[in-house]
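stage 2 :: seqdesign
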């Protein structure tokens, strides 16, 4: 007999034969307050009702469901309390970009370093799934500068850079300017590794960084459909 059935049998026997279970040696399990109320004889039961075995079993199931529900709610609250959001857990060589000026400045100060720009959305499931692996890659390549651009905070700039799917990546390298761009998901993360291997080679400086080219990122663009989460 399973442990779950012992307290149930104890409550059932208390209903039918209260004197049989007067000794705690027979059933050392304690009934819940609700079941103890059910087990009272008719004269002591406020409602004067006699409950069947099915009633007791239903009460046990209801009690366990309530306990399970309260535990799940508590676990959810604890998970969301305090601490940074997933998109705020940066590696040391990661920088959050909040404006066009910050973006251009970061590219200019990077010199000949490889710069990887991630365009993401806090609501994007694909962005969230990919982000831990991106942080690990950043830690493995401290020589690379990673810039993070929140799409919703920088919509005019993102649309000017033709960012339509999230997460989206731009690669910049010194005077070569933008050397590659593509959308990527966790399943296709090898694309990022391949791009790093291609563009993160040793080289001599060949001039000032090209930045974002001749794009006028300060000009707002007409309203367009919002970015979509990548499934590729």
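stage 2 :: out
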């Amino acid at each position: 007999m399973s442990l779950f059935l012992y307290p149930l049998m104890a409550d059932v026997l208390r209903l039918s034969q209260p004197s049989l279970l007067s000794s705690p040696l027979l059933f050392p399990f304690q009934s819940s307050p609700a079941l103890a109320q059910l087990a009272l004889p008719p004269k002591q039961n406020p409602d004067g009702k006699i409950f069947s075995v099915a009633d007791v079993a239903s009460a046990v199931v209801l009690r366990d469901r309530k306990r399970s529900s309260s535990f799940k709610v508590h676990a959810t609250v604890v998970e969301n309390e305090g601490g940074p959001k997933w998109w705020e857990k940066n590696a040391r060589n990661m920088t959050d970009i909040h404006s066009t000026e910050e973006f251009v400045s970061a590219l200019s100060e990077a010199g000949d370093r490889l710069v990887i720009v991630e365009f993401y959305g806090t609501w994007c499931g694909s962005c969230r799934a990919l982000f831990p692996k991106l942080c690990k890659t950043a830690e493995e390549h401290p020589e690379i500068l990673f810039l993070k651009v929140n799409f919703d905070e920088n919509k005019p700039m993102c649309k000017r850079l033709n960012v339509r799917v999230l997460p989206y990546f731009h690669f910049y390298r010194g005077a070569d300017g933008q050397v590659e761009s593509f959308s990527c998901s966790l399943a296709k993360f090898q694309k990022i590794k391949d791009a790093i291997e291609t563009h993160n080679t040793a080289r001599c400086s060949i001039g000032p960084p090209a930045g974002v080219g001749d794009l006028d990122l300060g000009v707002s663009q007409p309203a367009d459909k919002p970015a979509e989460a990548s499934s590729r």
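stage 3 :: structure notes
- Confidence is low (pLDDT under 50) at residues 1-5, 20-31, 71-79, 218-223.
- The first helix runs from residue 5 to 16.
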